[in-house]
Amino acid sequence: MITVTTNKTDHGGDIRLSGIAKTYGSFTAVHPLDLTVPQGSFFALLGASGCGKTTTLRMIAGLEEPSAGTVHLGDQDVTALPPYKRPVNTVFQSYALFPHLDIFENVAFGLRRRGIKSVKKQVGDMLDLVQLGEQARKKPHQLSGGQQQRVAVARALINHPKVLLLDEPLGALDLKLRRQMQLELKRIQTEVGITFVHVTHDQEEAMTMADTVAVMNAGRVEQLGSPTDLYENPRTTFVANFLGTSNFIEAEVDSKSGDDIVLKAGGGKLVLPEARCGAATTPGGKVLVGVRPEKISLTHADDAGEIPEGRNRINGKITNGSFIGVCTQYVVDSAVCPDFEVYVQNVDRDTRLVPGADVVLHWSPAHTFGLDAAQDIDAGVEEGAAA
Amino acid sequence: MTFVNWLKRHLVVIAGLLTLAYLLLPNVVVTVFSFNKPKGRFNYEWQEFSTAAWQDPCGVAGLCGSLSLSLQIAFWATLGATLLGTMIAFALVRYRFRARGAVNSLIFLPMAMPEVVMAASLLTLFLNMGAQLGFWTILIAHIMFCLSFVVTAVKARVMSMDPRLEQAAQDLYAGPVQTFLRVTLPIAAPGIAAGALLAFALSFDDFIITNFNAGSTVTFPMFVWGSAQRGTPVQINVIGTAMFVVAVLFVLASMVISNRRTKQKA
């Protein structure tokens, strides 16, 4: 069971999924899944389309019936409850605002259905919170995308749900507005302290907003952790490629020295801390060595002698360099990997680093991670790039 | 030369106005001849202005009785066809069931069938069942042929409805009944209204099927047809004009109401 712990003592808003699964005929959308989302956290389900993240969300909302397993909210088993009896509200993809009702009535909808008569003050306050007080009597189609998005959030939050579910809520917005709304949603979440479960295919969005991210792939949670943990210590090639970019080298375990493993790759030696290796390390075994492009330093072959001892090094030749402002992205051809990606900060630009130059790539062993070699190196590459 | 240029610039408007005139000319004729004072029994030639027929619209024996019957039949046929048709449309769009595709195409058959053939076959059916021809056989026939049109109108609307709207309603504490009344029905309403209007118009002026299956009962279209053999009373034009005016008033009223609503909200 995957559990995230916080120091909160109130567990009324915890979500507990136990062995929850969803199959459509012979297709399995979600494999049996155990997941606990603690009260008050901002939790993201991240994955490419069709990975089962939305289905999982809809099972929490009650809009989809699980084929197996149970859903608990706090101590209450809500598996058999219909959506209108669950203390959970959803912000739908493309908002699903009621077109025949004005903004005020859209926001008041949940209150009215629960028989609350005097809604005026609450709705007014909520519209002020999302800065839409002036638009109360307009119809949804008269608002911009960003405004509609805020109405959708207000319509859900006014009910003070135990959990707010967000299904790709920012997908329809342009990039700039999306960045703005990410911060806005994060602010609201901190203010109201409600548990947020956010479904997205955008890894940057998940990392910016969430305390905890669960990366899903083909109906399973591949890895769960804080954004930094997922980025620095990916446990599968899918996670390593889906979140950012990774370089992989196929290597063979040579020996152990202290807490480190020494590996052979393309005639050279690489060092990997044993704690950062997720694969078996019997001598002769295969390991995939990974390193992020921004952790690597690039030194011209003429200055190779200046590289400090104890760093992992690889010789190569620059095949491509693109200047993108904050950094320069190089592609380096080497014996162990034909297209090594290296991002170099534009602090002191070495003018000799142009395509065709012989270089040495070097990085700290502490930034190296090791994965089981029996998996697809390119898993998650396209999905990550598309997001 | 200037005339040619003027013509070029206003060609679209002129074509539009001519088409509109083509469309409305018959209505104008109906209205104008409702103020005629014909010589003899036929109201086909303009003689002199008179409001005699307007002062006594029921002055022709049987006319107002047939009109009232037609209105009643149209009302019940509209109600029946709209209720059934709306349910069929929802079933066809929302649910997957065996033979759904077949039902979908069978619904169109009554529209494709030549009306006179349908009328004759219906009569055969009613006679074989031993049904008494009259109000009920007319009503059953009208509901039957209006259904296809209602289903088509409502289905188009329901298909364009986002199913997430109903899920959103459920998510916001609306049970199945509340969801239907507060979200589904209001959003589908324009389609249902269009279907109902179509059904009313079709039922009110249907002649062929009614004529076959009415027995000795006389509806308004049958009355007009019957009297046309012996002479056309001006009152027919009066009723026609009145129907037209009522329809126009309805449209104007709905426009005023919706205008006022948007103004109030702005």
TrEMBL record, chain B:
Transmembrane region(s): 12-35, 73-93, 105-127, 133-154, 183-204, 234-257
PROSITE patterns: ABC_TM1
Keywords: Cell membrane, Membrane, Transmembrane, Transmembrane helix, Transport
GO CC annotation terms, alphabetical: plasma membrane
Domain of life of the source: Bacteria
Keyword set includes Cell membrane: yes
UniProt cross-references to InterPro entries, sorted A to Z: Bact_Polyamine_Transport (IPR051789), MetI-like (IPR000515), MetI-like_sf (IPR035906)
GO BP: transmembrane transport
Membrane topology: Multi-pass membrane protein
Limits of the ABC transmembrane type-1 domain: 67-257
Pfam families linked: BPD_transp_1
Subcellular compartments: Cell membrane
Entry's family note: Belongs to the binding-protein-dependent transport system permease family. CysTW subfamily.
Protein name according to UniProt: ABC transporter permease
Species of origin: Streptomyces caeruleatus
